[in-house]
Amino acid sequence: MARVVVDVMLKPEILDPQGQAVQRALPRLGFDGIAIAEVRQGKRFELEVDGPVDDAALTRIQELADTFLANTVIEDFTVKVEPS
Amino acid sequence: MTARVGVITFPGTLDDRDTQRAVGLAGAEAVPLWHRDKDLKQVDAVVLPGGFSYGDYLRAGAISRFSPVMETVIEQAKAGLPVLGICNGFQVLTETHLLPGAMLRNNHLHFICRDQRLRVENANTAWTTEFSAGQEISVPLKNIDGRYTADERTLDELEAEGRVVFRYLDGNPNGSLRDIAGITNAAGNVVGLMPHPEHAVEPLIGTGRTDGLGFFTSILKKLVGA
């Protein structure tokens, strides 16, 4: 088993009101000691792959992220293989 | 002979029955279509109704895009089949890339449900010929993922080609760029909008206005020349 992680984030130019709401709540919750200027919220997918994660498998996962897990009109994504 | 207008039901669709009823009130025959069925039953046009197909999991419309029925819809829409996407249907149309841009969470993060005034910007699409350009209509709006977004180049292109079909009036309800409530593809056969014309087709219900009926009489007129 190997784990491949796909992280999906809104593109930097896209407004993220959910991230903003989290950021604005920080002082109210007592987390005001550190200056957190901005919060952006994304999605993380963990794909458990049976068998080797070779180039062919990674290409397919890249394709899957590009067409399905992320909407590249509004989101960027990264694909990482986690060390087992 | 009348026109046959297909109405697709995905798991989680809510407004399929209202849409079928609106199609019938306009004088066309509503044909229920099922998401797992590739066969469009030889309909002359298709409506993708509102709701929360597949629970809006991943992104609104993201999973519906890969349903068997959509394979045929995408293929035939590219060949000219008239398609109307309402609310979740609009989200599905942007996810399939039949329409440009994407829908995001409302900028104020709240679900919104109200009567919404709109200006008809383009009365030449398959679904809007019964309106006139500049006409103001009022239909219900109800969603949480209604913020229309596209890059500046796409927005400029939409404006230049007259492909913004509806714009919000009386304040932008969700942060949609350039107050866009609905758009069309270059050919004018595919239209998507967030507000719900199918909920404004009978004087006894809602606003008491029947502004939504025009969508369905437009398509009927186009199909049978009635």
Automatic annotation (TrEMBL), chain A:
It catalyses: N(2)-formyl-N(1)-(5-phospho-beta-D-ribosyl)glycinamide + L-glutamine + ATP + H2O = 2-formamido-N(1)-(5-O-phospho-beta-D-ribosyl)acetamidine + L-glutamate + ADP + phosphate + H(+). Signal peptide: none annotated. The keyword Nucleotidyltransferase does not apply. Keywords: ATP-binding, Cytoplasm, Ligase, Nucleotide-binding, Purine biosynthesis. Pathway: Purine metabolism; IMP biosynthesis via de novo pathway; 5-amino-1-(5-phospho-D-ribosyl)imidazole from N(2)-formyl-N(1)-(5-phospho-D-ribosyl)glycinamide: step 1/2. Its EC number is 6.3.5.3. InterPro entries: PurS, PurS-like_sf. Part of the FGAM synthase complex composed of 1 PurL, 1 PurQ and 2 PurS subunits. Belongs to the PurS family. PANTHER family: PHOSPHORIBOSYLFORMYLGLYCINAMIDINE SYNTHASE SUBUNIT PURS. Part of the phosphoribosylformylglycinamidine synthase complex involved in the purines biosynthetic pathway. Catalyzes the ATP-dependent conversion of formylglycinamide ribonucleotide (FGAR) and glutamine to yield formylglycinamidine ribonucleotide (FGAM) and glutamate. The FGAM synthase complex is composed of three subunits. PurQ produces an ammonia molecule by converting glutamine to glutamate. PurL transfers the ammonia molecule to FGAR to form FGAM in an ATP-dependent manner. This is Phosphoribosylformylglycinamidine synthase subunit PurS. It comes from Streptomyces nigrescens. The gene is purS_1.
Automatic annotation (TrEMBL), chain B:
InterPro entries: Class_I_gatase-like (IPR029062), PRibForGlyAmidine_synth_PurQ (IPR010075). Its main location: cytoplasm. It holds the Pfam family GATase_5. Gene3D superfamilies: 3.40.50.880. The active site is at C87 (nucleophile), H196, E198. Its EC number is 6.3.5.3, 3.5.1.2. It is found in: Cytoplasm. The keyword Lyase does not apply. Pathway: Purine metabolism; IMP biosynthesis via de novo pathway; 5-amino-1-(5-phospho-D-ribosyl)imidazole from N(2)-formyl-N(1)-(5-phospho-D-ribosyl)glycinamide: step 1/2. It catalyses: N(2)-formyl-N(1)-(5-phospho-beta-D-ribosyl)glycinamide + L-glutamine + ATP + H2O = 2-formamido-N(1)-(5-O-phospho-beta-D-ribosyl)acetamidine + L-glutamate + ADP + phosphate + H(+); L-glutamine + H2O = L-glutamate + NH4(+). Keywords: ATP-binding, Cytoplasm, Glutamine amidotransferase, Hydrolase, Ligase, Nucleotide-binding, Purine biosynthesis. Part of the phosphoribosylformylglycinamidine synthase complex involved in the purines biosynthetic pathway. Catalyzes the ATP-dependent conversion of formylglycinamide ribonucleotide (FGAR) and glutamine to yield formylglycinamidine ribonucleotide (FGAM) and glutamate. The FGAM synthase complex is composed of three subunits. PurQ produces an ammonia molecule by converting glutamine to glutamate. PurL transfers the ammonia molecule to FGAR to form FGAM in an ATP-dependent manner. Part of the FGAM synthase complex composed of 1 PurL, 1 PurQ and 2 PurS subunits. NCBIfam families: FGAM_synth_I, PRK03619.1. PANTHER family: PHOSPHORIBOSYLFORMYLGLYCINAMIDINE SYNTHASE SUBUNIT PURQ (PTHR47552). This is Phosphoribosylformylglycinamidine synthase subunit PurQ. It comes from Streptomyces nigrescens. The gene is purQ_1.
